[in-house]
Amino acid sequence: MKDAFGIPQSLLVLGGTSEIALATARRLIARRTRTVWLAGRPSPALEQSAAELRDLGADVHTVAFDALDPESHETVLGKVFAEGDVDMVLLAFGILGDQARDEREPLNAVRVAQTNYTGAVSASLVSARALQTQGHGSLVVLSSVAGERARRANFIYGSSKAGLDAFTQGLGDAMHGTGVHVMVVRPGFVRSKMTADLAEAPLATTPEAVATAIELGLRRRSETVWVPGTLRVVMSALRHVPRGLFRRLPL
C-alpha cells in the first residue's frame, strides 16, 4: 500500500528501459518502493535496468511485454497483479519516430500511432481495471507537451500523444471515486537517448526532473503534471495563437 504521502511500495513499469521510468523508479526506491516489475521486450537493456535497480535494494522482476501486441496485455499484466497488489503503474513506453521518413512511409507512421496510442489505450484499460479491482493504486501516464498542439515538425508523434492525453483524462474521470488515481505527465523536451540527435528545445528538462515532478504529483494526488511547470503557461498561450501565425513560428 502507498504511505500517507502517496509513495508506492510496489511499482509496475510499462516500458522498462525508459530513462524517465528508471529515474522515477530510482527515486521511489530511495523513498519507500521495495518491489518493481519492469515490463518490456526481452533484451539485455531490460536485464541491465533490472540489475541496476536491484543494486539499490529493490526486489525487481522483468516481464515480457509488447505494446504492439494488445491481445496479450490482459494475460501478461494479469499475471503481475495476481502476484499481489500493485500500488502504482507507470506507463512510459513510446517512440518518437522520424517525421520526414514517416510521412513518406505511412506504415512507419502507423507504428508510431499503434505504439503511442493504441498500445497505451489497451495497457491503460487493463491496468486501471486491475487497480480498481484491488481498490487502490495510481496509474501514471507519460504524455507530452507535443500533444497540446500539432506542429509541422512532429505532428505524427504529437497527434499520437494528443490522443493518449485526451484518453487518459477521460479515464481519470471514469476512475474518480473508485480509489484509483490517474495522473497525466506532460514533459517538454527531455534530454535522453531518444532525443540525442535532435536540437534542444527551450525549457528542456531531464529524466531526473520528470521523476521529481512525478513524486510530487503522487504526494499531491495531482491529475496533471507539467515538466517544467512553466510550460503550463507557455502552452496555454500557444494554444490560442492563430493558425496562420502558429504555422510560421520557429517551433
UniProtKB/TrEMBL annotation:
The keyword Transferase does not apply. InterPro entries: NAD(P)-bd_dom_sf, Sc_DH/Rdtase_CS, SDR_fam. GO terms for molecular function: oxidoreductase activity. It holds the Pfam family adh_short. Keywords: Oxidoreductase. The keyword Oxidoreductase applies. Belongs to the short-chain dehydrogenases/reductases (SDR) family. This is Short-chain dehydrogenase.
